[in-house]
Write a sequence for this structure.
């Protein structure tokens, strides 16, 4: 069992809980880590940072396998991978959904009138719920 912690300096620390020891440190982010999410099988970790990047980490090889760079004026607040590891959502200036494996953007949702602060998937990615500084919670489904 592992635990990940992100720091204000952009470092991600991976801990092996059973042995109570550090397993890895990732230093690719250049600014504060604002969100992280493990894939369902625990092989991947996605992390979001104030440096306007989302990093996809392979925890078996202990390296970055994909970097998604947002535009300069984009603000990232959260990131999550759904339970099936099919989709990833990034909350920030708007709400972006990506297809995992290809890491291609599927849709951008701009229903909020202020920054999106949080996002979570429902079971089997059947719906998406987001919160925003506009003091609303939005529910998205097909």
């Amino acid at each position: 069992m592992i635990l990940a912690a992100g720091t204000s300096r952009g470092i991600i620390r991976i801990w092996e809980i059973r042995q109570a020891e550090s397993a890895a440190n990732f230093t690719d982010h250049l600014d504060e880590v604002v969100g992280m999410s493990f894939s369902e099988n625990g092989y991947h970790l996605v992390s979001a940072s104030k440096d306007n990047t989302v990093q996809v980490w392979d925890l078996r090889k202990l390296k970055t396998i994909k970097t998604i760079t947002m535009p300069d004026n984009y603000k990232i607040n959260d990131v999550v991978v759904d339970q099936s590891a099919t989709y990833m959502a990034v909350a920030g200036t708007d709400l972006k959904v990506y297809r995992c494996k290809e890491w291609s953007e599927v849709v951008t949702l701009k229903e909020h009138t202020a920054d999106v602060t949080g996002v979570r998937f429902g079971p089997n990615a059947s719906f998406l719920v987001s919160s925003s500084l506009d003091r609303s919670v939005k529910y998205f489904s097909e």
Observations:
- The CA atoms of residues 66 and 103 lie 8 Å apart.
- The chain has a mean pLDDT of 94.
- The chain is about 0% helix and 55% strand.
